[in-house]
Automatic annotation (TrEMBL):
GO CC terms of this entry: periplasmic space
Keywords: 2Fe-2S, Iron, Iron-sulfur, Metal-binding, Oxidoreductase
InterPro entries given in the database record: 2Fe-2S-bd, 2Fe-2S-bd_dom_sf, 2Fe-2S_ferredoxin-like_sf, 2Fe-2S_ferredoxin-type, 2Fe2S_fd_BS, Aldehyde_Oxdr_Iron-Sulfur, Beta-grasp_dom_sf, TAT_signal
Molecular functions per Gene Ontology: 2 iron, 2 sulfur cluster binding; metal ion binding; oxidoreductase activity, acting on the aldehyde or oxo group of donors
Alphabetized CDD domains for the sequence: fer2
Protein species of origin: Granulicella pectinivorans
Classification via Pfam families: Fer2 (PF00111), Fer2_2 (PF01799)
The protein's name: Xanthine dehydrogenase YagT iron-sulfur-binding subunit
Highest taxon listed in the record's lineage: Bacteria
Span list, region Disordered: 1-27
Domain 2Fe-2S ferredoxin-type per the UniProt entry, residue ranges: 71-147
Length: 222
């Protein structure tokens, strides 16, 4: 009683004595065991949901399409048939350079504006960056590698060398392929006619007079 009076005097409430349940467990022990059982039940209920959740897969590289679908195609390039499996979205330019190891055809603007990627398809000049490879099954495709070799140059290649029709050389393969096609297509006799016929081939070094001179030499020889 003395302790009780002292606690009340200082405004403190004495701790409530633990009561025993009929089973002999204290109330605190009973509540603790009840909480533990609830946690275990919740974990057991969540386990099927966790197991059903798929593990995250590798992130898709946005620079490379996730689709790996390809289709078989046979291309005839420089007189040789080549069997390939290609993504239908592969351009003829990328197919030549990456799949067929023919890097002479250059990738310049990749938008059909510079002419560096010019090749022949069935004898006509084509910007290979604007054409899908799968469109050309059965076509005759000729690249600069098939036009001539250092030991056996095509007359147009020899004329470009003779007239210094190139400087950095990046546009040269496209210029030569276009020039050969121009003479087959039919072109007026003057230098201006040649310039107009080849306006789609850009030389950033500015070797246009020498290019025209090379084309005119081949025309005279023919």
């Amino acid at each position: 009683m003395a302790n009780d009076s002292k606690d009340r005097k200082h405004g403190q409430t004495p701790p409530e004595p633990e009561t025993k349940a009929s089973s002999g467990l204290s109330r605190r022990s009973f509540l603790s065991s009840l909480g533990a059982a609830g946690i275990a039940s919740a974990a057991a209920a969540a386990q099927p949901l966790l197991a059903a959740t798929p593990a995250p897969g590798p992130a898709c590289d946005q620079a490379v399409p996730c689709s790996q679908d390809t289709m078989p195609i046979t291309l005839k390039v420089n007189g040789e048939s080549r069997a390939l499996n290609l993504d239908p979205r592969t351009t003829l330019l990328d197919c030549l350079r990456e799949n067929l190891d023919l890097p002479g055809t250059k990738k310049g603007c990749d938008h059909g504006q510079c002419g560096a990627c010019t090749v022949h398809v069935n004898g006509r000049r084509v910007n290979s960056c604007l054409s899908f490879a799968v469109m050309h099954a059965g076509d005759e495709i000729t690249t600069i590698e098939g036009l001539g070799t250092p030991d056996h140059m095509h007359p147009m290649q020899a004329a470009f060398v003779q007239h210094d029709g190139f400087q950095c050389g990046y546009c040269t393969s496209g210029q030569i392929m276009s020039a050969v096609a121009v003479l087959k297509e039919g072109c007026g006799p003057t230098d201006d006619d040649v310039k107009h016929a080849m306006y789609g081939n850009i030389c950033r070094c500015g070797a246009y007079p020498n290019i025209v001179a090379a084309v005119q030499q081949v025309r005279r020889q023919a």
